[in-house]
Design brief:
5-stranded parallel sheet; alpha/beta; single chain; binds 5-amino-5-deoxy-1-O-phosphono-D-mannitol; 363 residues
């Protein structure tokens, strides 16, 4: 039931605030993260130098955000690989390794094979999934559930947002276990609890996002750029756009532009910059100016406290000013709605993109 929404994708995007509330429910107690499901992994999580993470598609971009988040707060090295590569590489890990497998459906073939490989070497597997009783859940040692409710649309939306939130909770738990907790972590807990309300505020801007999206529906190409946590968001923005609108979209860390991709830019190749007013904003601004010098159209997704972006952008999309590390969550509905409105305007069904299935159960 689409509950009055034109597509499941749109309904699922608008469910994000309540899904995040469900993901958080019972998992924060006395300003600390409470995850009894991983109690048995505590010693390993406290001592391992490296944490391995496997996933595919959108789930792999949530995993990449987790890497940026956790490496910034602790000394653990987070090694993220797409499952289709991990499963065929030399397994250079042992029984002291924790492998986190992230899969909304819990049925993605490459992720399941990665888990089987890891288990055959004695590694401990922690699943992050949305589906109770999925193969991933059954074959893993431990599971953290997203609690996002069924996701019908092929395009992952609410599962991505809840993966981010759950991985951040896991990250904070790891920071605590490693005795690296500080004031920033306490502030992050407070911000996580406010996420449902701030996500609502992002969604209240849907009409403006639609207006901007419709201006760009006839372009054949798009380049998404970002730095730091903005980079996985750029990757996800590009994936969402190509997957449902069939517009060619690519994503780069903004600092890579000069190493090749900038050659593509011009009036026919717009740029979508993820540029919240964070520690890397000045660097992003330079990159955006370089893009404008190639006469590209520039859409900037920023935060409300960024005052000078309007001087360079053709169009500005914005979210509430918030904890820097949580911008990937707040910005997710914006990149999703941007892609959705373009796909819908072009007459495509975003719930059932051509050539794609909800779960990739074969290689
Ligand atoms: O169920 P999973 O999270 O394992 O799925 C992984 C990808 O197939 C999935 O995220 C895919 O990229 C989505 N269709 C993107 O919207």
């Amino acid at each position: 039931q689409k509950s009055g929404y034109k597509h499941y994708m749109l309904k699922e995007i608008f469910e994000e605030p309540s899904c995040v509330a469900a993901t958080l429910s019972g998992r924060i107690k006395s300003a600390k993260v409470h995850l009894p499901e991983i109690e048995e992994l505590q010693d390993l999580l406290a001592s391992s130098k490296t944490l391995k993470v496997v996933a595919c598609g959108t789930s792999s971009y949530a995993a990449l955000s987790f890497k940026y988040f956790l490496e910034n707060l602790s000394d653990v090295c987070v090694d993220v690989e797409v499952s289709s590569e991990f499963r065929y590489k030399r397994p250079n890990f042992d029984e002291n390794t924790v492998l986190v497998a992230v899969s909304q459906s819990g049925e993605t073939a490459d992720t399941l094979e990665s888990v089987r490989l890891a288990k055959s070497k004695g590694a401990k597997v922690l699943a992050i999934t949305n589906v109770v009783g999925s193969t991933l859940m059954r074959e893993s040692d431990h599971t953290l559930l997203l609690n996002a409710g069924p996701e019908i649309s092929v395009a992952a939306t609410k599962s991505y947002v809840t993966q981010l939130v759950l991985l951040y909770l896991l990250g904070l738990k790891i920071v605590e276990l490693r005795d690296q907790w500080n004031e920033r972590c306490t502030k992050l807990i407070d911000s996580l609890l406010r996420l449902p309300e701030v996500l609502d505020a992002t969604l209240s801007r849907a009409e403006h996002i639609k207006e901007v999206a419709l201006k760009y529906k006839d372009f054949q190409h798009f380049m998404y750029i970002g730095r730091g946590l903005g980079y996985p968001t750029a990757l996800e923005g590009a994936l969402k756009l190509k997957e449902i609108s069939y517009i060619h979209a690519t994503a780069y860390p903004a600092g890579e532009l000069k190493h090749g991709p900038i050659a593509l830019l011009g009036p026919e190749f717009p740029v979508f910059a993820i540029a919240p007013f964070d520690a890397l904003y000045a660097k992003m601004k330079n990159n955006m100016i370089e893009c404008k010098a190639r006469k590209t159209k520039l859409v900037v997704l920023t935060s409300d406290d960024c005052e000078d972006v309007r001087e360079i952008a053709d169009d500005v999309l914005s979210v509430n000013s918030f904890s820097e590390q949580l911008y990937p969550v707040l910005m997710a509905p914006v990149i999703q709605l941007f892609a959705y409105y373009i796909a819908d305007a072009l007459g495509h069904d975003p719930d059932k993109p051509k050539n794609l299935a909800k779960s990739v159960t074969v290689e």
